[in-house]
Design brief:
The chain is 43% helix and 13% strand. The chain is of the alpha/beta class. Strands 7-6-5-4-3-2-1-9-8 form a 9-stranded parallel sheet, with helices on one face. α5 links the parallel β4 and β5. α10 packs parallel to α11. The two termini are 38 Å apart. The structure holds flavin-adenine dinucleotide.
Length: 306
């Protein structure tokens, strides 16, 4: 059957281009053997899409130091994808944080996502630097930069960090991190693309030129995402809540809705020229895989020993 080619008539970039897309995936270190199996099934599924990197989070208060390291080390050993290890300033001296970073360097990890972090218990608690620790994400970036030639990514908050007085303060914070050596920013997730575009415009107008990668969260579980968003300073629009209304006992439809919403968001970003997406996977592959497929990614390479 001949496929009609309407591409010239279609204004949407997401229908025409969809090549050269770049993705990265974020995972969290598993707590149980079952979660470990889920994570590795997800990595196995997503790795052939050849992400630019996959990152592994560092639990609040540094609570997952060993598990983050073990997960990153296994990615190095068993796959060909490049891992990025999240690292925070919380509850450790500079020497201890440096030691962790050095141990990453020794096993071949070249990319750190450098964060201030939150105290145990999450953002509700106030961050107090360790007396001999890095006092801020900016200080951590500078410390890592002195230590080794790491690629350093940092966070940024298009709707403002919950502790931030204004978006300008977030822009200033990002600038400080770039001056200290950060080369990529990954955003907190958001649901209204306009929020991201406004932030991007403001950042570019302030002379920030590094990539600011949109963080995309496919809504695997609406209630959980809404709770997380409240703590993280991301707003949940009424339309999003409405789309999940009445579906508490209908996981199949919820998943279809989640895929549709994420696809709509990503297509709008593609239409605006965005080509790199960072997916908060929640250690689940299927929604993210489907969205990646929609934006033109296809399995490329086999991974080592999976
Ligand atoms: P910071 O760089 O500390 O900035 C937060 C706010 O502080 C800024 O918006 C600004 O208002 C203010 N600020 C900081 N520096 C300056 C400055 N120089 N001048 C003016 N104002 C300043 N948490 C974890 O515990 N583990 C993780 O693995 C983790 N991964 C994350 C990944 C991403 C992509 C994101 C977006 C967040 C992540 N977090 C993680 C959450 C993060 O640790 C918390 O949001 C924390 O409260 C802030 O740390 P930060 O490094 O993100 O932000």
């Amino acid at each position: 059957m001949a496929l009609a080619d309407f591409s010239a008539a279609l204004p949407r970039a997401s229908r025409r281009i969809c090549t050269g897309m770049n993705v990265s995936f974020e995972f969290f270190p598993p707590q149980t053997e079952e979660m470990e199996r889920t994570l590795w099934t997800s990595i196995e599924r997503l790795a052939p899409l050849a992400p630019e990197f996959v990152s592994v989070t560092y639990g609040a208060g540094g609570s997952t130091r060993e598990r983050t390291h073990a997960t990153v080390a296994r990615i190095v050993r068993e796959t060909t994808i490049k891992p990025a290890a999240h690292l925070t300033c919380v509850g450790a001296t500079c020497a201890e944080v440096d030691e962790i970073a050095r141990s990453y360097w020794e096993i071949g990890v070249r990319h750190i996502v450098a964060l201030r972090g939150d105290p145990p218990g999450g953002v509700a608690g106030r961050f107090h630097p360790h007396p001999e620790g890095y006092a801020s994400s900016t200080a951590l970036v500078a410390g890592l930069r002195r230590l080794a030639d790491f690629e350093i990514s940092v966070s940024t908050y298009p709707e403002g960090h919950p502790e931030s007085a204004s978006i300008d303060q977030d822009i200033d914070a990002l600038k400080a991190k770039i001056d200290a050596g950060a080369t990529r920013a990954i955003t907190q997730f958001f649901f209204e693309n306009e929020v991201y575009f406004r932030f991007l415009d403001k950042a570019r107008a302030s002379g920030i030129n590094i990539p600011i990668i949109p963080g995309i969260v496919p809504v695997q579980n609406f209630r959980q995402t809404a709770r997380f968003a409240e703590r993280a300073g991301a707003s949940v629009p009424a339309w999003l809540a409405e789309r999940f209304e009445g579906l508490d006992d209908d996981p199949t439809t919820r998943r279809l809705i989640a895929a549709t919403i994420a696809a709509e968001q990503v297509f709008d970003l593609v239409d605006a020229g965005i080509e790199h997406f960072h997916f908060y996977t929640m250690n689940r592959a299927d929604l993210v895989y489907a969205i990646c497929h929609l934006i033109g990614l296809r399995p490329k390479a086999e991974t080592k020993d999976l």
